[in-house]
Amino acid sequence: MRYYTAGESHGQGLVAIIEGVPAGLKVSEEQINIDLARRQSGYGRGGRQKIERDTVQVISGIRFGRTMGSPVAMIVKNRDWENWTDRMAPFGEAPLDLVREVTPRPGHADLVGALKTNTDDCRNILERSSARTTAPRVAAAGIAREFLAELGVDIFSYVVSIGSVSMREENPYMNAAQYTPLAIETSEVRCPDAEATEAMKREIDRAIKTKDSLGGTFRVVVRGLLPGVGDYAVPTERLTSTIGGALFSIPAIKGVEFGMGFECARRPGSQVHDPIELDRANAKFTRTSNNAGGLEGGMTTGMPLVVTAAMKPIPTLMQPLQTVNLDTLEVAQASKERSDVCAVPAAAVVAEGEVAFALADAYMRKFGSDNMADIKAAIKAYKQRLNTM
Ligand code: EPS
User: Fold this and answer.
1) Contact residues of ligand 1, CB 6 A cut-off
2) Does the keyword section mention NADP (predicted)?
3) Using one digit for the tens of pLDDT, what is the confidence trace for 117-164?
4) What are the CB-based long-range contacts (under 8 Å, 24+) for 207-211?
């Protein structure tokens, strides 16, 4: 299962096409819209979110609420388009009063993208490198999430830190799977700790006051995984590789850690690796800890998958950094425009979808891809074999 997207931040809308979708999968439009709304949420988002109410429109591939086995096409429209019809018109001449973007923001794709594509207007770059382009990715991920949900796999995320404020956690690789969606989604920063939520909001308020922006870290947690999904033999099929790559494809993601991550490098092996135990009651192998974060040798262990990602601060600053004006080549202040101060809670929702795609693809490689009935039969046979070992 893979997806493609097209669309700009202030164009007519954003499109996703998902290929390799098995037939017979139940899909809920409402659930996709809930995820789109979750992506728009979060303390620290800017004025644009008051304009947009993202909803999905399915164009193909789904009939009477079930996938047909053909590619699924979706659109998420931009409400703001009506304010940009002249400046973003696909055809005709540019308006005479068009203001080109010539003061690239440090940390954004503006400058390098303009050099690469030979344009004198950084808008051509920022329109596509905008966080807005994650909206169709979340819509597309709805298919992967439904696929996994039907196989007993669920995915959630939560924010661990914003700026210098972190929630306190005891052995999160073992315990993160116990957080409830209610505790996460009722927090304005999508953090299950009420005290940390308030401290993070204060941190964002301080950034607004000082005209700055903030990044942070979040975890994606997956429960209900079977052991042995992914691969150790083919480098590109290792889940560390596919999930890592998928998370790094989200704009602004600067680091990914599986389980204990970088801390593993500082400890001796005896304090890192998870002892194996036989759970006789459930006829399965388990681990007494989960420092590996649910992956060994690029495959699922059957323990919860716990992956942490770090997001850098938003590059648009209300107190801009120094740049160079591309017209005059003089020192200038970087572009300053309506933006978000912090989008970590939203990025975590995007990351859930990326992890879902990587896992759905790995499940289909192992258990088949044509239709849900055959996939479920293959999973049943696999479970039976593991149980009778
Ligand atoms: C963004 C700037 C803001 C954000 C936008 C990403 O939009 P605008 O320039 O229209 O004010 O709100 O994110 C979204 C619209 C979204 O839906 O995520 C940027 O510069 O990347």
Assistant:
1) 9, 46, 48-49, 52, 80, 126, 130-132, 135, 316, 337-340
2) yes
3) 999 999 999 999 999 999 999 999 999 999 999 999 999 999 999 999
4) 207/44, 207/163, 207/341, 207/342, 208/44, 208/341, 210/319, 211/317, 211/318, 211/319
- Is 129 annotated as contributing to ligand binding? yes
Strands 295-296 and 66-67: unpaired
Global ipTM: 0.94
CA dihedral 90, 141, 307, 287 (to 10 degrees): -170
Query: What is the domain-level CATH number for residue 44?
Result: 3.60.150.10
List the domain range (segments joined by +) for residue 343.
2-387
CA end-to-end span of the chain, whole Å?
31
45 is in an annotated binding site: yes
Report pLDDT digits (tens) over 198-243: 999 999 999 999 999 999 999 999 999 999 999 999 999 999 999 9
